[in-house]
Amino acid sequence: MLSQKLQQKLLQRLSPQQILLMKLLQIPSIALEQRIKQEIEENPALEDANDPEDFNEGDDMSSEVESDPVDELERERQDFDITDYLDDDDIPAYRLNAGNTSSDDEHREVPYASGASFHEILISQLGLRVLTEKQIKIATYIIGNIDDSGYLNRELTAMVDDLAFTQNIMTDVDELNDMLRVVQEFDPSGVGARDLKECLIIQLKRKEQTPSVQLAIELVDEFFDELTKKHYDKITKKLKISDDDLRDAMNEILKLNPKPGNSLDEGVKSSQYIMPDFFVYSRDEELELQINSRNMPELRLSRNYVDMLETYAENKSKTNSQREAVMFIKQKIDSAKWFIDAIKQRQNTLYVTMQAILDYQREYFLTGDETKLKPMILKDIAEMVGLDISTISRVANSKYVQTPFGTFLLKSFFSESMQTDSGEEVSTREIKKILTDCIAAEEKGKPLTDEQLTDILKEKGYNIARRTIAKYREQLNIPVARLRKEL
């Protein structure tokens, strides 16, 4: 049975401008430049103000500052067909320019060095050996399977099949082992090992064979599991050696490189640089905030597209194709204006949010003392700036701030609170700092257990359970007491 009824619904939907702003907010500065360039490529109505190809010498840019030519045409020609569009654009042209740099900005350039790669260095050493053509191909294939850390993670039996199918080279595991030993003689020492144990033994055998080195080889070869678990008492009893002998052998092992490939690759592989989104300066007990926008192009509305609208307005007879063309122009100009406005709103939102964090954590940013950090959650900053918690989360995500004390991830300043015995609320980051200091100052021969750390923090007024100490220790990547023990 069919029926009709009248129903009212209240729905909340995000406009395209709001969606664009939300997407731009969560992009860090290092990715924003590429996003702006992508928008310039996709939207011909958007221009880079510094691009000489888009600048016409005959344009009088001062007229753009005074008023929008599209608005002037609307006032002069009442018969213009897209009056609804032009009535809404009461925006001066100077507001459609996004200037992202100033004379006070510091311009820094990062030098890059280039050179031979890790695998190219190994292959160059292969040329110094007297080998047959088949042996060179096998050794080259082995080198190609060595990862950036210097380890061979492929099984030799699998490599035998690969060589047969891909290069028509018939070989066996014994021949591969012979060529692997040749590669393991290359520099850096330890390269071509199949696991950490083999890597350490290769390096130790290439050292001068002193009693300490010989004992170190025996320790790695026969007591590797005990070494990794630091069961030193078991080792001294089984080998009947003194603690001094074990200490000397351990010193030889600690000098070795567990990732030999990195020793050659450090100078040639791409370095990962953090580009901060904010700069915080402390001058005369006052904090100064600056947003990093030096890599952002300056944006403006294309004058050519505005001229197209002028030409359309002057044309008395308008065909369907012309109407379709002007609708296309309208869409592109709208999109350009939305993007420029979203960039401005992004910068403003970033600034007010970071300024609120500076005000909230003023003592920390003045001193750099992590114990001065206050408990701070997203809701605290959202209430200060009058924005939604999700907006603050997008701002804090993947953003870095450069301070006089280092460069930090913005979301690392947010932490839960914990109450002391005196009733004072402190940040969990402050507790982690105290925990780190206690472990750094412990006696390395007898490291503090989680129970002892719990007692120490309780004496300082922090009533924390042992399992919470273990959780904080794991978050700080600090191993248990047994694995922190040193001879």
Give structural attributes.
487 residues, alpha+beta, 4 domains, four-stranded mixed β-sheet, two-stranded antiparallel sheet, 24 helices, 8 strands
In words, what does this structure look like?
With 487 residues, the protein is α+β, with helices and mostly antiparallel strands. It folds into 4 domains: 173 residues, no CATH class; 70 residues; 75 residues; 68 residues, Homeodomain-like (Arc Repressor Mutant, subunit A, Orthogonal Bundle). Helix content is 52%, strand content 7%. The protein has 24 helices and 8 strands. The chain has a 4-stranded mixed sheet with strand order 3-2-5-6. Strands 1-4 form a two-stranded antiparallel sheet. A two-stranded antiparallel ribbon has the order 7-8. A hairpin with a 5-residue loop joins β7 and β8. α7 packs across α9 and α19 crosses α20. The termini are far apart. About 10% of the residues have low confidence.
Radius of gyration: 33 Å
Strand order, sheet with most strands: 3-2-5-6
In whole angstroms, the N-to-C terminal distance is: 87 Å
Shape annotation: extended
DSSP strand content? 5-15%
**What is the count of helical runs?**
24
The portion of residues assigned to helices is: 40-55%
Global mean pLDDT? 78
Question: Uncertain regions: pLDDT < 50 for 5+ in a row?
Answer: 55-91, 109-113, 265-271
How many strand units? 8
Number of domains: 4
Given the helix and strand composition, which structural class is it?
alpha+beta
Largest sheet: 4 strands, mixed
